[in-house]
Amino acid sequence: MFRHALSAIQNIGHRVIEGIWRLGHASRFFILVLLKSGTSLRRFGLVIRELYFTGVLSLIIIVVSGLFVGMVLGLQGYETLQKYGSESAVGTLVALSLVRELGPVVAALLFASRAGSAITAEIGLMKATEQLAAMGMMAVDPVARVVAPRFWSGVISMPFLAAIFSVMGVYGGYLVTVVFIGVDEGTYWSQMQSAVDFRFDILNGFIKSCFFGVAVTAIAVFEGYDAPPTAEGVSGATTRTVVTSSLVILGLDFILTAFMFRGVS
Amino acid sequence: MTSESLIEVNNLSFSYDKRPILNGINMHMQRGQVVAIMGGSGSGKTTLLRLISGAIQPTNGHVKFAGEVVHELSRDALFSLRRKMGMLFQFGALFTDLSVYDNVAFQMREHTNLPESMIRDLVLMKLHAVGLRGAHYLMPNELSGGMARRVALARSIALDPMLIMYDEPFTGLDPISLSVIGNLIRRLTDALGMTSIVVTHDVQESLKIVDYVYFIADGVIAAHGTPKEVRDSVAPFVHQFVHGEEDGPVPFHYPAQSYKKDLGLGDYRV
Amino acid sequence: MQRTTMDLWVGLFVMAGIAALMVLSLKVGNLNVYNPSQSYILTGNFENIGGLKVRAPVKSAGVVVGRVTDIQFSTQTYDAIVTMSMDSRFIFPKDTFASILTSGLLGEQYIGLAAGGDEDMLKDGDKIMKTNSAMVLEELIGRFLFDKAAED
Fold it and tell me: Which DSSP string corresponds to A110-164?
C-alpha cells in the first residue's frame, strides 16, 4: 500500500520534470526559430508558398464555420433577448461575442486542427524520411529553410482568418435575424456600431488572434521537429499538436481577456 | 594534403550515453577510390558517416577531411565544408514537395547565384548522367525506389563534391536497379574524380565495384583489404560475413544467461 | 501547383483578410463615428454617478460626442471626478449642463450634455461646472413615498 502511494507520487514527479524539461526544450527551439528567421524574411517566396497551405486551404472551413456560428448566435440571441423585449440588441450580442471571443478562439481552434496538424505531420514526415538530415548535409539549415517559413506563414494568416471568421459570423447573424426573422436592418447595424468599440473590442480581438497564431504554429513546428522519426511518432505528434494548442488557446484566452478587459464595464 | 589522402580517420572513438559505439578506428581514403564499409546491423557504420560529415562530435580522435579536422570547425566552416560532400540516404530522402528537377536544382539555387538558364543545363546534365533526363517533371512519389535513388544521386553530385557517402544504397532494390546503382557509383566516381564511401551489407554487389573494404564489428575495424584479399580471407569473421553464415564469431544468440537457468532447469549455480 | 496560381491565391487571401479587418473596423465597429486620436479632455464633478462606467458614451442630442475615460473619487469634495475624452469636432459652451442619464428603463448609463448659451467655449482640460447626478431608483421611490406621506 505504502509502496503504491510512493510510486504514484514518483510518477507525478516524473511527469512534472518531464513536462518542464520539454517546455524548456520547446522554448529554446522557439528562440532558435526566431533567430533563424532571416532567410525566410529575405526570401519571402518561401513564406508565400506556405501561406497557401496554411491560409488559403484553411479558408473554406473558416468561412463555413463562421457563417454557421453567426447564424446560431443570431437565432439563440434573438430567442433569449425577445423575452426581455430587447431583440434590437441582437446585433450587439452577435458582434461582441464574435469580435471579442468566438472569432479569435474558434478560428484558432479550427486553425490548430486544420493547419497546425498539417504542419506537424509535414515536418515530422520530412524528418522521418531523412529529408531534414539530407538538407543539413547539403549545408542548408532545415530550421531556417523548412521550419521558419511555416512558422511565419501561420503567424501571418491567423489574424486574417480570425477577422474573416468574425465578419462571416456577423453576416450570418444578419442573415438569420434581419432576413429570416425580420429585425430592422438599421437597428441591427446601428446597435452594433454604438456598442462595439474599435480599440477595446476589435483591436483586442486582433491582438488575441496574433497571440494565438504564434502559439499554435510554434507548438505545431516544435512537435513536428521533435517527433520521433517513425509512423507512430508522427501520428502521436500530430495529436499532441491539436490537443496542446487547443488547451493553450483556451488558457491564453483567459489570461489575455483578464488583462484586456480588467476593470472595464 | 599529402599523398592524395582525402580522408584520414585517426583513432576515432564515439560513445553514446557511455555506451561505446566506435573504438579507435583508423582509415585512409584516397581520391578516386570507392571504399566500402561493411559490418552487421548496428555495428556503428552509419555513426561513422555522421562523424565524417560533422553531424556529431567524436569522444576521442579526429576525422581529417582535405586536411581540416572536421569536429574543430566552426558552424560556418562546417557548412562550407559540407558543400564539398554529398550524401545519399538510404531511401533517397528526396524532398517530397519538389519535383525531380527542383530536387536536383535545390543546392544550386541555395548556394549559387547562377542564372536559371544555366541551372537548367546543369540539372539536365546531372539527370542525364543517371539516365533520368526524361523524368525531370515527375514528383518523387511517382518514382520507383531505384529511380528515386538515382535522382538522389544526381542531387548529391549537383555541386560536384569531392566526396559522396552512400548510406545503404542497395537496400530494397531489385537485381536490375541494384547493378544500375552499383555501376553508377563506380562510373561517377571515376568520371568526376571524387571519393565514394559506401556503407552497406550487400557483400556481393559492393565487392564488384569497390577498391578497398573495411569491416567493422563491435566498434573496431575487424578486417580490411582489397576485394580480392577479402574474398580469399580465411579470417573467421570475414569468412562468416562474406559467405553469410548463420553462426560464427558473430553469434546467432544475443548474449544471455545460460539457457538452462532461464528455463529453470538443473543447477542454479553459474 | 503552378507558382503563379499559388501567388494569386495567396494574394486573394491576404486581400480578403485585410478587407475583413476593414469591415470589422468600419461597419461593425465605430471607427468612423468616433476617432479617439483627435480628442480633448473635459472633467466634471458629480455628486453621485450611479452605475456609470468607464467607456460609457457622452452624448449630446442623442449623438455620441465622446467617451468616459476615467472615474475617480475626490477626497477633498467627497464626490466623483469623471474624465471625458471628447471628439475635437464638437465643442461646447462654458455653461454646458452635464447630467447622468439612463438609456431606457434599465439600460446603460451615459452622460448627456445640454449646451448652454455662453460665448466662451470649453477647452482641453476644462471642468464642466454644472452637473446633475444620476437618478438612483431607491432615492426616487423614497422621495415619492415621503411626498405621498406629506400629502396625507
Answer: HHIIIIIHHHHHHHHHHHHTTHHHHHHHTT--HIIIIIHHHHHHHHHHHHHHHHH
Nearest to B96 among A131, A135, A141 (CB): A131
- Count up the domains in chain B and report the number: 1
- Quote the CA–CA distance of A95 and A195 in Å, as a whole number: 9
Domain that holds residue A242: 36-260
Answer yes or no: is C4 within a domain: yes
User: Could you tell me how far CA A15 lies from the centroid of its own chain?
Assistant: 26
Range of the domain at B51: 5-97+161-233
**Beta strand spans in chain B (E):** 5-16, 19-30, 34-38, 60-65, 68-69, 85-88, 163-167, 195-200, 212-217, 220-225
Domain assignment present for C151: no
Of B21, B63, B27, B69, give the one whose Cα is nearest residue B42: B21
More confident residue, C87 or A117: A117
C-alpha cell at position A209: 488572434
Q: How many domains does chain C have?
A: 2
Interface pTM, i.e. ipTM: 0.82
C113 and C62 belong to one structural domain = yes
Q: Are residues C27 and C45 in the same domain?
A: no
CB contact under 8 A, C17 and A159: yes
CATH of the domain at B197: 3.40.50.300
User: Is B259 a member of any domain?
Assistant: no
For chain C, list the contacting chains (3+ Cβ pairs, <8 Å): A
Q: Name the amino acid, one letter, at A136.
A: G
**Which residues span the domain enclosing C112?**
39-141
* 3-state SS class at B269: coil
Residue with cell 487571401: C13
Q: Mind listing the pLDDT tens digit for each residue in A52-92?
A: 999 999 999 999 999 999 999 999 999 998 888 777 788 88
Buried b (16+ CB within 10 A) or exposed e, C16-44: bbeebbebbbebbbbbeebeeeebbebeb
Q: Determine the Cα–Cα distance for residues B100 and B81; give it in Å rounded to an integer.
A: 25
Size of interface A-C (CB pairs under 8 A): 93
- Cβ atoms within 10 Å, residue C112: 19
Query: Do C82 and C116 sit in the same domain of this protein?
Result: yes
Q: What are the pLDDT digits (tens) for B68-118?
A: 888 888 888 888 888 888 888 888 889 988 899 999 999 888 888 888 898
Whether C71 and C45 share a structural domain:
yes
Partner chains of B (3+ C-beta pairs under 8 Å): A
Select the residue of C10, C21, C30 nearest A55 (Cβ to Cβ): C10
Are C51 and C15 within one domain?
Answer: no
CA distance B113 to B102: 15
